[in-house]
Write a structure and sequence with these properties.
alpha/beta, TIM Barrel, eight-stranded mixed beta sheet, two-stranded antiparallel sheet, 10 helices, binds iron/sulfur cluster
Length: about 290
């Protein structure tokens, strides 16, 4: 039995994967909106412990085709350590076909193209990364740790190394004041990256985050629900690269899926039909629990 150190997060599309916590927490852990790893101190799991878990996983789940490496950014690990993990996973889980991972742009910027290619060749297949915004001001204010240019550079490195790239952006992250710049610059960054997948999440404000305090102290004017829908429509209108677009996260007001730009008209029609029905009242700000 794998012993997880909660809280544990994984992308919705990894629901049927075996999750392995190669690290605990997030090495950055500074984003003002993020509550995920506030209670965890970043740690690298020692090899002995990790290897034992991989051997046990192989015994209990030899049929597993997918493994997802958690927590927040295990790509921060030394390349040699990641290669050891990949080797052990493919050796002990006979049915294994692909390994996916959460990463920050900083993790990608710190690795050389050769290191990334080697990881790809040894079976690391898909990277999930939060772009959040393509607007320099929003990125700086939310303490993401990189600017838009660095975000593009990091994501391009992943694509050039042959990874499948699944990205997330957050509707509402510019608040009521900067929503247009947030979305227009996010679309620009997405168009320069060309990710395989693009998920639009909706801003959630959790107690214990800096953003929660900023909202309470009126430093961050919350977007309205209708504004969120308008942001999504603008994003869909502006994305020119081919990408699978989703807004089916638990945070989203309207579940949408489609391929852009081919399916743009259909996706836009759904959003536009929903806009007049969406209340023009602020998004809720009190999410008490994780999901
Ligand atoms: S990098 Fe990701 S996991 Fe880490 S604090 Fe920022 S949003 Fe949260």
């Amino acid at each position: 039995m794998l012993r997880y150190q909660e809280p544990l997060f994984r992308p919705p599309s990894e629901a049927r994967s075996l999750i392995l916590q190669a690290t605990l927490g997030c090495s950055h852990n500074k984003c003002t909106f993020c509550y995920m790893y506030k209670a965890k101190k970043f740690q690298i799991r020692p090899w002995k412990e990790l290897y034992q878990e991989i051997v046990e996983a192989g015994r209990e789940y030899p049929y597993m085709k997918r493994v997802f490496l958690a927590d927040g950014d295990p790509l921060v690990l030394e390349t040699s350590y990641l290669l050891r993990i990949l080797e052990a996973l493919y050796q002990h889980i006979p049915a294994l076909e692909r390994v996916s991972i959460y990463a920050t742009p900083q993790n990608l910027l710190e690795k050389s193209p050769q290191e990334l290619r080697l990881l790809r060749e040894r079976g690391l297949h898909l990277i999930y990364l939060g772009i959040e915004s393509g607007d320099d001001q929003v990125l700086a204010e939310t303490k993401k740790g990189v600017n838009a240019k660095e975000m593009v550079e990091a994501c391009r490195k992943a694509l050039d190394a042959g990874f499948v790239l699944s990205t997330m952006v957050i509707l509402g992250l510019g608040g009521a004041r900067r929503w247009k710049e947030h979305i227009m610059n996010t679309a620009k960054v997405v168009n320069r990256i060309g990710p395989h997948y693009l998920a639009a999440l909706t801003l959630m404000v959790f107690p214990g985050t800096i953003l929660h305090r900023q909202v309470r102290e009126d430093e961050f004017p919350m977007p309205t629900m209708r504004q969120i829908m308008e942001e999504m429509a603008l994003l869909v209108e502006l994305v020119e690269v081919e990408t699978v677009f989703r807004s089916n996260h638990v945070s989203n007001l309207l579940p949408i899926k489609g391929t852009l730009p081919r399916g743009r008209e259909k996706v836009l029609a759904q959003i536009e039909a929903a806009i007049p029905l969406t209340p023009d009242t602020p998004l809720p700000t009190e999410y008490q629990g994780a999901f």
